[in-house]
Amino acid sequence: MSTSVDVSKWKHLPPPPGFAAVSSSTATATASYEELKAKRAWDLAFSPAKSLPMQAFMLYMSGGGVQIFSMGIVFMLLSSPFKNLASINTAFAPFAPASSSPKALTTLPLQKIAYLFCNLLTLALGLWKCRSMGLLPTGTGDWLAFESRGQPPETLLI
Question: Which residue, 58, 104, 94, is CA-closest to 77?
Fold first, then answer.
């Protein structure tokens, strides 16, 4: 039994349907890989905004009162943007182009600005919920302890 294949008798057959005999060069493969990394960086940049509807629904379902469940959700909503922004360079490091430093602040600046803006939207949603629960001092009655009383304008004549 011979295990060698005679290639010469199969040369005259056409290639199968869907087969392209294109030799891919490393330059085009690298360019498509860099393009794919940039697309994934944009997906990461908009990921906080994609979770906003779900978080808004969670805030709605937690109610307007000050309870442990609603406070836990608000704390999670307010702390996650700070955690995300503290690790912004490490989050975008896998998507950095090969020509730049992965953890530099100037790498992928537009994606990082979009990521910052989306996290600020999450923070604004959390602050809105705090305001609607009455936890933020927005009215004049909240600042009465810091007001000083002046002398009354009337005088007593005896």
Answer: 58
Question: Would you state the structure tokens that stand for residue 90, as one six-digit string?
Answer: 């490490």
Backbone phi, psi, residue 47, to 5°: -65, -35
Helix, strand, coil percent values for the chain (each to nearest 5): 60, 0, 40
Average pLDDT over residues 1-30: 71
Distance of alpha carbon 142 from alpha carbon 134, whole angstroms: 10
40: closest CA among 115, 100, 121, 105? 115
CB of 128 closer than 8 Å to CB of 134: no
d(CA 81, CA 123): 6
pTM here is 0.72
CA gap 19, 85 in Å, rounded:
46
Q: For residue range 45-73, what is the model confidence (pLDDT) as tens digits?
A: 999 999 999 999 999 998 888 889 999 99
User: How far are the Cα atoms of 2, 80, 91, 117 from residue 83, in angstroms, in the given order?
Assistant: 65, 5, 11, 14
